């Protein structure tokens, strides 16, 4: 291992550890009647120093304990999936055709300098504005869809004046955390 590889590995590990320290408040699944499911359940949960919305969406009328336990395991893994999603976002940004790049450039094009200065440090000469803006992406919602072609939707946004913007970078992932696709929604 070269010396620079050691530091790169250590920095990547630090980044992962920083993401993993976020803890997620657990939702109360006792209201979910397995024999008579509602189409939609939702919770506001504390995630680190923020709140996120969690919703559970069913297309069936009943389920079993094994299926609900898979959902609970997935919910318990949201902090790890969030960290993994950050890697998907960075990888997408590096592509020639990138939804992430289009999404972040939207802010750079649409916001006035003073609005942008409220989000990122415009005097930072070491990092590009797009990378500084990417660091400001926050997870605001996780939607779980057990019967869909993907298992969950992770919505990310950037805060403007202390509130999440309605422009969303959306990652749809499978139950095992693999990326299905990234899109931009408003």
Question: What would you say this structure looks like, in words?
Answer:
There is one protein chain. The chain has helices at 3-20, 65-76, 78-93, 99-110, 113-117, 129-134; strands at residues 40-47, 50-57, 137-144, 152-160, 163-164, 168-173, 179-185. The model is unreliable at 1-21 (pLDDT under 50). With 186 residues, the chain is an alpha+beta fold. Strands 1, 2, 3, 4, 5, 6 and 7 form a seven-stranded mixed sheet that branches. It is elongated and about 55 Å long. Helix content is 37%, strand content 26%. It has six helices and seven strands, in the order H-E-E-H-H-H-H-H-E-E-E-E-E.
Question: What are the SSEs and their pairings?
Answer:
Elements: H1 3-20, E1 40-47, E2 50-57, H2 65-76, H3 78-93, H4 99-110, H5 113-117, H6 129-134, E3 137-144, E4 152-160, E5 163-164, E6 168-173, E7 179-185
Number of separate strands: 7
The number of distinct helices, counting runs of at least 4 residues, comes to 6
What structural class do the secondary elements suggest? alpha+beta
Order of helices and strands: HEEHHHHHEEEEE
Short account of what is shown:
The chain has 186 residues and is α+β, with helices and mostly antiparallel strands.
Provide the descriptors you would attach to this structure in a database record.
alpha+beta; seven-stranded mixed beta sheet; disordered N terminus; 6 helices; 37% helix; 186 residues; single chain; elongated
